[in-house]
């Protein structure tokens, strides 16, 4: 498992700049508990970039669990 010590921490660059480590492995989720419990059904989201202002939209799921 990756070291998470610096994730989300502001890292000083100079007097006017800082950086944050936001992630380390796209499309991967690390769970910190052995079991996951959902409060509701999971939702799939897609980014619609066809307009001037990109927007996140939820995608309806089919009865078989597909999208």
Q: Proportion of β residues?
A: 25-35%
Helical fraction: under 10%
Main beta sheet strand tally, sense and closure: 2 strands, antiparallel
Backbone shape: flat
Q: Whole-number radius of gyration?
A: 18 Å
Query: How many strand elements?
Result: 4
Q: Helical segment tally?
A: 0
- Give, in order, the helices and strands: EEEE
Number of domains as seen in the coordinates: 1
| Average pLDDT level | 78
| Overall SS class | mainly beta
Question: What topology, given as strand order, has the largest sheet?
Answer: 1-2
| End-to-end C-alpha gap | 30 Å
Low-confidence stretches: none
What does this molecule look like?
The protein is mainly beta. The chain contains no helices and four strands. The protein has a two-stranded antiparallel ribbon. Strand 1 and strand 2 form a beta hairpin. The protein is flat. The two termini are 30 Å apart. 0% of the residues are buried.
Q: What is the gist of this entry?
A:
This protein is mainly beta and 67 residues long.
Question: What does the secondary structure layout of this molecule look like, with pairings?
Answer:
Blueprint: E1 10-14, E2 17-20, E3 44-48, E4 55-59
Antiparallel strand pairs: 1-2, 3-4
